[in-house]
Structure formats: structure tokens, C-alpha cells
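During the practical work, I worked with a single protein chain and the C-alpha cells that describe its fold, as given directly below.
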Amino acid sequence: MSPGMASRTLILCWSCVLGVLGAPVRAEPRVDPVLPAPAALAETARDPAAIARQPVAVIDLTNDPAVREVAYKLLELLASHAELAPPGVSDGAALVDKLPPDDELRIADARRKLLSAAKDLAQRSFREAAIDAVEGQEALWRVAPRAALTLYADLELALGQSRLGEQKDAEAREAFALTLRLDPARTLDDRRYVPEVIQTFEAARAVQPGLGKIVVRGTGQVWMDGDEVGAAPGEFPALIGRHVVWLTGMLRETAGKEVVVTANRPGDATILDGPLTRPQKVVRYRVAFAEAQDRAKRLDAMTALAGFVNVHDAILLFAVNGKILWQAWRDRGPGFSEVRELPRNRPGEILKSLVPPHPVDLATGVRVPALPPPWYRRRTVQLGVAASVVAAVVGGYFWARYHEPDRPWNSNITGFRSGPGQGP
């Protein structure tokens, strides 16, 4: 190939390459090819956000097996949906799985300890009864205060009886005083309790102790003897005597301890933070939303949950009188939709209300799904083809111009001399 021809070939190939790179990348809309799509439609097709799948949270609000089954089905449908998607795997499971029975297990353990303490008291095994009562209370330190309060008072009353049986009268009065702080209206039936216990219990009620304080170190909301008193860290007024303090919070493990306040020394409630795993945090948000009563609190709880799991839409499922109901939510108008009954055996119908709107071809009035560009119009494919063409052209150009240097003609073709002085 002559240099001129090679140069012209190279220029022609470069023109082809520039034509490929300069070609616009746009989706092929599903419309009649003889009708041009509007320019705005092409812009929508080029926008990556238009073809991104939209994550949707599915939330079981009643912890009901039938509701949970529907929730699992919806997650399966979302996983294979063209435009919608489930949230992250761990988040999605935490929003629909059976709620962990941590508090129920601890409460059940505390109840067993109370029954054991009562049996020990009946057998006058006072030391063993005291051990059971204390162990039951320690289990309740990790239970939400409102759920633990009455049972904690029962255990404290058993502890007071044990101390009285051990002839530790001062400790018995302190235990009875804490029982009354936890349950001020409590009285003792003389058909169940011996006179000595009733007299000591009423004597503790009559005492008017002085005022001291408790210093709480840690983070969370402070609950003192079952009442929420503020945020930690901080100092809080407290009567002289024994108290139980809990720290709670949305994103921390509930924890508590008992402290003693004296006239000369404040009670020290140093309670370490209890970090939660991400699924535990999601469960906390889910429970907070399920327990929210009025509309404003529901909206705040739902917004917090959606922000944590990073979704803008959700399907809420719950059961009422054996019927499974659902409600949609989105972080834009109208927010919560009206509550509807689940279509029988057709949970996929719920998803139709959450599918993002499609652009409409103004010429035909047909909804046009935004599709990714075909493979031959993808920029990565075009760049790869262009690079291959450039490499082939450049290589061909240099190959065409390459020639071996001229060699002198040797008329003697009978052989080659291998060295000086050597003949055929």
C-alpha cells in the first residue's frame, strides 16, 4: 500500500470512529417507529434515575403469622419486579420476621424466680428465697420499665420477707419501702401474710425519709422506680433509701441497676451503653411505629424508620378481626393511603399503587417505559469497538509501510560460505 493510500485509509477509519463516538445514546421507546418520540422522552430515557429500581419496605405491624406470610410473598415479588425492589436483606427480614422474644423470656425467667422464692419462703428457706428474688430482679434490669414494674415489686416484697425471716429488720424495711415506691397502692392481705410481715410493711409506709440525689452516668432516658425523669447523664432528686434505675433508648439496650441514697452520699447509677446490631435497631423502629397511636406520632415514627432503612415507599400490613389489611406510605403526598383489605390470594395487586409513573408519548398517548439503551448503543461497547478499530488501523498502517532493507544480489547460489577460508 502506498503512503498516500494508507493515509487516506487512516483518515476514513478515524472518521468512522468519530461517528461512532459522537452518536447519541438513547433508549428505544416502545412506540410506533414511524412516529417520533418527544425530546423530553429521550431525556428521560437517558436519565439513569429513570431506570433505577425503587426500594419498597414491607412492614408487619401485628407480628401475626398470616400477615408475615403475606409479607414474605411481597418480598419475593419485589425481588423479581422490573421497577420495584425490596430493601436490604437484613433490613427487610427485620421488618417482617417474628419479633424476638427477649423481654418475654426475661419476664418468664423472673416469674420462675418469684415462684421459687415463694416456695422457699413456705419452707422457711429464707436465704435461698432472697437469692431467687435478687436473680429475678437482675433479669428485669434488661426489660422495659413499664413491663417490669409490677413483677419487680413482687420480687422486692419477697426479698423483704426473706430479710425479715433472716432477722435483718433494717434490710426488710428498706425492701418494703422500695416495694411501695414501685407500687404505692399496694396492701397486704392478712390471710396470706403473717402479722409480723404486715406490721413491718406498714411501718415502712409510715416513714418519711429525707431527700438526696442520684447521679446517673450513661446515655438514654432515665427511669427511676418506674417513672421517666429525664435524660442521662445527669443528677436527679431521690428520697433516701434504695431505688432501681433504668436507662432506655431507641438505639441502646435497656439496662438497669439498684442504688442506695444516703443523707451524706448520692446514689451512683453508672450504667454502660448497650450497643445494638443493625437488625435490632430496625426492630426497635418497627416496634415504635407499631405502638404509635395518633397520626402525628405515626408519621414521625414512619419517617424515622424509612430514613434509617433508606426507602421512600412502604407497604404496611396488619390484621383486624381475622382480616389482613394493608396501607401504603410514601414520603411525599399524600403520605399514608387509605386502609384497604388485602385482595384474596393476590398480594401483587398492592404493588400497582407504588409503581413509579411512566412518561407518555405525546403523539400516541401511550405510556412508554423508560428502558436502558440497547447493547450496541452503550457507551462502553462503543468505546471498545472504537479502540479496536484504532488499533487495527494503526497496525495496518505501519505494516503497509514496513519493507526489508535492500540486499546485494549474489549470483552464486550453490551454497553459502560458513566462514573465512571455507569453500563448497
Q: What stands out?
A: The longest strand covers residues 211-224. The first helix runs from residue 3 to 22.
